[in-house]
Amino acid sequence: MTRIDAKFAALKAEGKKAFVSYVMAGDPDYETSLDLVRGLPAAGVDIIELGLPFTDPMADGPTIQLAGQRALDGGMTLQKTLDLATEFRKGDETTPIVLMGYYNPIYSRGVDRFLADAKAAGIDGLIVVDLPPEEDSELCIPAQNAGLNFIRLATPTTDDKRLPKVLQNTSGFVYYVSITGITGAAEAEATDVGPEVARIKSATDLPVIVGFGINTPEKSETIASVADGAVVGSAIVKQIGEGRPTADVLAFVKTLSDGAHRA
User: Could you tell me the CA-to-CA distances from 28 to 36, 189, 225 in Å, in that order?
Assistant: First the structure.
């Protein structure tokens, strides 16, 4: 059982929905980013999604693109991202960390070396948005063999014919992208999301978490109410980009997690 599996089992026992937060590793700099990540569990975050900075993100809107650029400009690398996770683990052995990014940096490092290093750093799962199920032998299967969850995205365009393929080797949870388009581009609506989550849940026993388009405590609550939890990224990253103090960002995160936990 991975930390992700254990977290969902604990939440289920408490009758609670999950709150997942996304932050870009190294934004705006390594030390500030580490302080923020260390503060997330106390702000009610159940699972941390840690963005891996990359020069050419495809699924991300301007807010997260700029965060990645700030991190890269500050010297953030794949190694430093793993170092950040290692430092976090010195004070927290239980909160799951999902590394979210693109395949190029992983490929450049070498899959076997990356997986060994990620496991040693305390990474629990991977979301690699530009590797479809047809490429499962590339990273997904080796990751699962190394004890890491490989989390797949389902979207409004994932029809009933495609869905079994998407779910085939997915573990940990399914990440449902609530809108068509990029992060931070539109608002998620529970009336649209609910039936889609139900459709996915009829095909898998995995938890279904909804992300994209969630930016307020109220939205976090309404979306979590029709799923197993909610993910917020751009709204948090926007505050970091505005230069707000870490304490203020964490206070905002707490309002979002409270929303999801009320659902």
Answer: 11, 31, 33
